[in-house]
Write a structure and sequence with these properties.
The two termini are 21 Å apart. This protein has helices at 86-93, 98-103, 108-116, 120-135, 152-168, 191-209, 226-238, 255-261, 275-284, 292-297, 306-311, 332-343, 347-353, 356-361, 389-392, and strands at residues 7-8, 10-18, 29-38, 41-47, 56-57, 60-62, 67-70, 72-74, 139-145, 172-180, 214-219, 245-247, 266-269, 287-290, 316-318, 379-382, 399-403. Helix 6 (191-209) runs parallel beside helix 7. It is an alpha/beta fold and 407 residues long. The model is unreliable at 1-5 (pLDDT under 50). The protein has 15 helices and 17 strands. An eight-stranded parallel beta sheet has the order 8-9-10-11-12-13-14-15.
């Protein structure tokens, strides 16, 4: 389970652990466990009986039989934006499709207009309540994308606001540049010229500023083609940034295969994924990030091919996809329930999907996502009798305590 030093900063004992370490049984379950933290990292996680006898914690917390999991990870969000799209929600209820709204000039572009008009302070102020809702459910790591600027200065402002959130709140913020999200109105339909601007102007500037940890794109008929996304990925690689992709959400455009060819961290959505795409993802080690909030909100009918992902042993992560137009969701607990009820994931797949596999999808599995010695001591402590409760309940938050880097 990992070694320990003679002293540690903090010890949680009399706890049940769901370590989520792969290959250690269901959940990595330990009935009478303990976790020790030293310098913000896990010094020990395992059976209480195996605690080193000379361990000398400065503080000991009796968990009274509560469960400890790794801190939750929301690995796909668009959390920083201005305005809302409640009116479009009404339109959709009356029968308008996502694609129809987008082609009519609504959708993403309405959020782009509001976000361009907002200052960095405005963006931070608007995002904080959404972030706090996720933190209150045990989230300790979150990914935040740009993509509502579609020009350099607003994209920079979104990413800078996201970075600030990680300084204002005790959690890790992973930022992703999503310039290839939609075509801005001033492009007047010229996708090639806009993609050229993303590749030659935006990505080098964002990389030079150190504002992004990865580059994403939207590969879809209403967005960009595989060839256009390939140009974006080439520019990302030249800038030393890993890639990920919105793929196969509304149709099968071959995005998953493209993502795999570039060694993408993840391909996300995947409702229309086919077998060659799944096989390519498996070979490349590209994680699948499933987003049941968007599936539910836009009333999709084709579910992601979960059995295909299982057959090819593609890692499955879950995320909220928090965004104003297609998934205004700020609950990772509800996301797990949706993953189980809508996509028929198992409880263990759901829990792994917001811990271990979410960390993998961010390229952070070496740091977070499981309870193992050497990783950051990010914990969620729950008032539950069994981990299945975290997936089973709807609208109920049993979090007792949240620990970030041992504090």
């Amino acid at each position: 389970m990992g070694g320990a030093t003679a002293t540690c900063d903090r010890l949680w004992t009399n706890a049940r652990l769901a370590t989520l370490v792969a290959g250690q049984g269901t959940y990595g379950r330990i009935e009478d466990g303990a976790v020790a933290a030293r310098d913000g990292r896990v010094a020990y996680a395992g059976p209480r009986a195996d605690l080193p006898s000379d361990l000398s914690p400065r503080e000991t917390i009796d968990c009274a039989g509560r469960w400890i999991t790794p801190g939750l990870i929301d690995c796909h969000t668009h959390l920083v934006y201005a305005g809302n799209r409640a009116r479009e929600f009404e339109m959709r209820l009356k029968g308008a499709s996502y694609a129809e709204i987008a082609r009519a000039g609504g959708g993403i572009l309405s959020t782009v207009a509001a976000t361009r008009a907002a200052g960095e302070d405005d963006l931070v102020r608007a995002a904080l309540p959404r972030l706090d809702a996720l933190i209150a459910e045990g989230v300790t790591t979150i990914e935040i994308k740009s993509g509502y600027g579609l020009e350099l200065e607003t994209e920079r402002r979104q990413l800078a606001a996201a970075r600030r959130l990680g300084r204002i709140r005790a959690l890790d913020v992973v930022t992703t540049f999503l310039g290839a999200h939609a075509l801005p109105p001033e492009a007047e339909g010229d996708k090639a010229a806009y993609i050229d601007r993303v590749c030659r102007e935006m990505i080098p500037a964002i990389a030079a500023d150190g504002l992004a940890d990865a580059v994403d794109g939207f590969c879809e008929g209403i967005a960009f083609s595989p060839d256009e996304i390939a140009r974006v990925f080439d520019a990302a690689k030249a800038a030393g940034l890993p890639v990920k992709l919105h793929a196969e959400q509304l149709s099968n455009s071959g995005g998953a295969g493209l993502a795999a060819r570039y060694g993408a961290l993840s391909a996300d959505h995947l409702e229309y994924l086919d077998e060659p795409g799944a096989a390519a993802m498996a070979d490349a080690g590209t994680a699948a990030v499933l987003l049941p909030g968007a599936f539910y909100f836009i009333r999709e009918t084709q579910t992601p091919p979960v059995d295909l992902l299982r057959r090819y042993k593609v890692p499955i992560a879950l995320a909220t996809d928090c965004n104003p137009g297609t998934s205004p969701l700020t609950s990772l607990l509800l996301t797990m329930n949706m993953g189980a009820t809508l996509f028929r994931l198992t409880v263990e797949e759901c829990l792994a999907g917001v811990t271990r596999e979410a960390a993998r999808a961010l390229g952070r599995l070496d740091r977070v996502g499981t309870l193992e010695a050497g990783k950051w001591c990010d914990l969620a402590i729950w008032d539950i009798d069994d981990p299945a409760e975290l997936v089973y309940r709807i609208g109920f938050n049993p979090l007792c305590a949240r620990v970030w880097r041992g504090r």
